[in-house]
């Protein structure tokens, strides 16, 4: 992986390969050109390093910089942007109001979009999928409006380049597509959310994204196993 020599200090990233929250940090580090040691975590049997680095939430990602852990993906993104402000493109706008708007929508992805989309991810029947899909549509439409507001007619939420909202939402795109394929749904429908649909294509084609984004086929295989466990009778192995 490309790096910036000694400027980065010692960097480690604790993650799980399929996690959108880890993916967004990987893309940010790639955009900044930072070298780091990636340490895959088994979330069923959490390592002592993960538990000691994130004792509050015990979740990934955790970025460890010179022995000091930074937790929660959006916090990590802001930390990376500030700690390496002169390296690579900025992840947050320079204007204070635009920064506040970007933070709002990045938080919206985590706190509103994902909880609304999660029932579709976990649906195991046609009825569940239909209901879950209808419930998440308003959030997709809100993000369509957010894209128009944040992009100001340019390619990304961040304007000409990928920013924090692009990373927050873009890390879910491969998962959204995989879930849609299995569910027979189309959340990023060109007719309903044309700006978001075109944005998703542009985001997935960004070099830094292509270099670290897991393959859809690998995500699909993992997702099918996840659904099989959900559908299994209680108590079965």
From TrEMBL:
<comment type="similarity">
    <text>Belongs to the GST superfamily. Tau family.</text>
</comment>
<dbReference type="InterPro" id="IPR004045">
    <property type="entry name" value="Glutathione_S-Trfase_N"/>
</dbReference>
<feature type="domain" description="GST C-terminal">
    <location>
        <begin position="95"/>
        <end position="226"/>
    </location>
</feature>
<dbReference type="GO" id="GO:0005829">
    <property type="term" value="C:cytosol"/>
</dbReference>
<dbReference type="Pfam" id="PF02798">
    <property type="entry name" value="GST_N"/>
</dbReference>
<dbReference type="InterPro" id="IPR036282">
    <property type="entry name" value="Glutathione-S-Trfase_C_sf"/>
</dbReference>
<keyword id="KW-0808">Transferase</keyword>
<dbReference type="GO" id="GO:0006749">
    <property type="term" value="P:glutathione metabolic process"/>
</dbReference>
<comment type="function">
    <text>Is involved in the conjugation of reduced glutathione to a wide number of exogenous and endogenous hydrophobic electrophiles.</text>
</comment>
<dbReference type="GO" id="GO:0004364">
    <property type="term" value="F:glutathione transferase activity"/>
</dbReference>
<dbReference type="InterPro" id="IPR045073">
    <property type="entry name" value="Omega/Tau-like"/>
</dbReference>
<dbReference type="GO" id="GO:0005737">
    <property type="term" value="C:cytoplasm"/>
</dbReference>
<dbReference type="InterPro" id="IPR010987">
    <property type="entry name" value="Glutathione-S-Trfase_C-like"/>
</dbReference>
<dbReference type="Pfam" id="PF13410">
    <property type="entry name" value="GST_C_2"/>
</dbReference>
<dbReference type="InterPro" id="IPR040079">
    <property type="entry name" value="Glutathione_S-Trfase"/>
</dbReference>
<dbReference type="InterPro" id="IPR036249">
    <property type="entry name" value="Thioredoxin-like_sf"/>
</dbReference>
<keyword id="KW-0963">Cytoplasm</keyword>
<feature type="domain" description="GST N-terminal">
    <location>
        <begin position="9"/>
        <end position="88"/>
    </location>
</feature>
<dbReference type="InterPro" id="IPR045074">
    <property type="entry name" value="GST_C_Tau"/>
</dbReference>
<protein>
    <recommendedName>
        <fullName>Glutathione S-transferase</fullName>
        <ecNumber>2.5.1.18</ecNumber>
    </recommendedName>
</protein>
């Amino acid at each position: 992986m490309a790096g910036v020599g000694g400027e980065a200090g010692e960097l480690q990233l604790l993650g799980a390969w399929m996690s959108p929250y880890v993916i967004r940090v990987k893309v940010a580090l790639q955009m900044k050109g930072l070298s780091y040691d990636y340490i895959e975590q088994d979330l069923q049997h959490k390592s002592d390093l993960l538990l000691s680095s994130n004792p509050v939430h015990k979740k990934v990602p955790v970025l460890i910089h010179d022995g000091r852990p930074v937790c929660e993906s959006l916090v990590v993104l802001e930390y990376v942007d500030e700690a390496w402000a002169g390296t690579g493109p900025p992840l947050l706008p320079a204007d204070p109001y635009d920064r506040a708007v970007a933070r709002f929508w990045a938080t919206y992805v985590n706190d509103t979009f994902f909880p609304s989309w999660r029932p579709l991810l976990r649906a195991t029947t046609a009825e569940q999928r239909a209901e879950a899909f209808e419930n998440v549509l308003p959030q997709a439409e809100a993000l369509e409006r957010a894209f128009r507001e944040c992009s100001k007619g340019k390619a990304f939420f961040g304007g000409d380049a990928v920013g924090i909202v692009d990373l927050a939402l873009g890390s879910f795109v491969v998962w959204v597509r995989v879930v849609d394929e299995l569910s027979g749904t189309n959340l990023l429908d060109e007719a309903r959310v044309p700006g978001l649909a075109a944005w998703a294509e542009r985001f997935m084609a960004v070099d830094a994204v292509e270099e670290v984004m897991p393959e859809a086929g690998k995500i699909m295989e993992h997702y099918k196993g996840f659904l099989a466990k959900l559908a299994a009778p209680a108590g079965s192995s």
